[in-house]
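hey so i finally got around to running the thing on that chain from the lab meeting. sorry it took forever, my laptop kept dying and i had to restart like 3 times. anyway pasting the input first so we r on the same page abt which one it is
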Amino acid sequence: MKWHNFNLSIRIKISSGAALALFVIAVFALLGLSAASKTISAKFGEAVAGLWGAISVFLAQQHGSNKLDVEAAKAGAGEKLNEIKAAAAGIAAPPCPPAEHP
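ok and heres what got predicted. didnt touch it at all, straight out
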């Protein structure tokens, strides 16, 4: 294996509650930093708007993903959807056991 072919990926799944907690922590961190710096204080509104936009997009994407999973489960296509997601992520699907014959 050559080093220029090396590929590394890290996937982190964050729940909605954790994302909201991180948002609140970031807002309070900005409050603390704005008390220490006039420059940050001047950009506080823009920074909070950016955080609000990021959390909104994250929650909308997560809601769409959850809605797709529910619809697939109702249609009975949950297992096929998992295979499609695994293939899209580059994860090889585990081999299916051979059918048993009497």
